[in-house]
Design brief:
Elements lengths: L1 H11 L6 H18 L7 H25 L2
Helix pairs in contact: 1-3, 2-3
């Protein structure tokens, strides 16, 4: 639900998605959340949070790509 809202918000803002963003952005999001925001210090909880945030990013960019290619 929230990734759909995020995709719709990005569409209204005029942002574009691409295959590169769909593949690269979640990986970068994971690195930011796990390493730069020190998620690794939280152990398993930090890992799960970083993975979930990166999956949300993947879903949002994918849904935006689907919406803009309809």
């Amino acid at each position: 639900y929230y990734s759909t809202l995020h995709a719709e918000q990005k569409l209204e803002a005029g942002e574009k998605s691409s295959v590169l963003k769909i593949l690269l952005w979640p990986f970068l999001k994971f690195k930011v959340n796990y390493f730069l925001r020190l998620g690794f210090l939280d152990g398993t909880e930090g890992l799960v949070c970083a993975v979930m945030m990166s999956f949300h990013s993947f879903l949002a960019w994918s849904k935006l790509w689907i919406k803009q290619n309809k």
